[in-house]
């Protein structure tokens, strides 16, 4: 992931520290439309111990994944990723919404702590069976050069995002803290698409990490996520994704 540029009642009662089946928009329990299996994407909505589920967050995440599945398919001529379910799984955390703010470790240590907090619901890194998307309804301090954000990142098999992304997907015109408000809805969908690309094994285009003029800035895996859906996959990205076990004709 890049450092972000400056422009740039679910189902009944949730059992503390556990997972729940997905719910429909009405709040009633529904059966998955897709059977979870090897080579699919699983999405988790992680709720801290001192917060209640927000239906709008749940629904917005589900919509973002659907949009991206369609967009990837258009970019790849009908080849796209499979999903294990059409709606996010719900995970009740055993930690409160301030646990990342209180954590004094490095980015990698805070990332590991976030992953540990949701591990009882299945997500793990370098997973050969699933690619995991985890949205945490937890707070983080504002980005600083000496303390970059923990969430809003992706690595092979896993991407984890935080409350700013949930708020952006739900109400993109809301003025968020740290100057992160005012972006259109597509920027937040595109942000997920960029981090999901990392989870599928994609890297930033050559030169982008060094801010070289040769960087393909408009690509999804550069800064194109801000303009989503008006962005694109590079040819080398397409080649990698077509060979991935997570992608097939749909």
Beta-strand percentage range? 5-15%
The residue fraction in helices comes out at 25-40%
Total strands: the figure is 8
Spans with pLDDT under 50 lasting ≥5 residues? 2-36
Number of helices: 6
Indicate the multimeric state: single chain
Helical/strand content category: alpha/beta
Mean pLDDT, to the nearest integer, reads 83
| Helix/strand order | EEHEEHHEEEHHHE
Radius of gyration: 17 Å
Give the N-to-C terminal Cα separation.
Answer: 28 Å
Shape descriptor = globular
The biggest sheet, with number of strands, parallel, antiparallel or mixed sense and barrel status, is: 8 strands, mixed
Structure characteristics:
single chain, 250 residues, alpha/beta, 6 helices
What this model shows, in words?
Helix 1 crosses helix 4 and helix 1 crosses helix 5 (185-199). The chain has 250 residues and is an alpha/beta fold. It is globular and about 45 Å long. The chain contains six helices and eight strands, in the order ββαββααβββαααβ. The protein starts with 18 loop residues before the first strand and ends with a strand. Strand 2 (40-47), helix 1 and strand 3 (79-83) form a beta-alpha-beta unit. Strands 1, 2, 3, 4, 5, 6, 7 and 8 form an eight-stranded mixed sheet that branches. The model is unreliable at 2-36 (pLDDT under 50).
